[in-house]
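Much of our argument rests on the idea that a fold can be written as discrete symbols. In the encoding step, the backbone of a single protein was reduced to a row of integers, each denoting a local shape. We regard such an encoding as a compact summary of how the chain folds. The record that follows shows the chain in one-letter code together with its fold in token form:
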Amino acid sequence: MTGDHYFTAEPTTPARPREVEFSVAGRDYTLTSAAGVFSADRLDPGTAVLLRKAELPTAGTTGPLLDVGCGFGPITCVLATSAPSATVWAVDVNERARELTAANAARVGVADRVRVAAPDDVPADLSLAQIWSNPPIHIGKAELHELLLRWLPRLAPDGVAWLVVARHLGGDSLHRWLIEQGWQVERHASQKGYRVLRVTR
């Protein structure tokens, strides 16, 4: 075992690249993943539910959009493909994840509209049309709350955030906590033990 987690800033685990294939909204994707990032061997089941059940942006969506905890970039690539007029910010603390997301954005032909960044490198005045996240539950509840309190206030007045959380990992308690923070929260869908939450002001 190593000390690496998917939220390690600079993984030391050998990368061992591999390919991950999945389909969303009638389009097939083949992305490169590697050890040391979140769900390295497959499209995470929660991410799959999020991309299947949430309302993907459309050709009329102009953004900017944000993928929090982008991993190797599946959400980023789907968002950028679905919304060809939008800029997508892909944020992760994990350097390897950021490198993979940038490479995968280029692979699917959307690199010109994807901005891959460490959290501190996102402009402070950026107002977001949408936030998408399969948030890193395993960093701990306090850290998770801190992460959401960092990004959700950047939503534009008419913006929307889409989150997916496993019920057994606190999806319902997170729903209640968000309401306590003053957000409007709707359980948009439930599938395979996951909650898809729609969060607005």
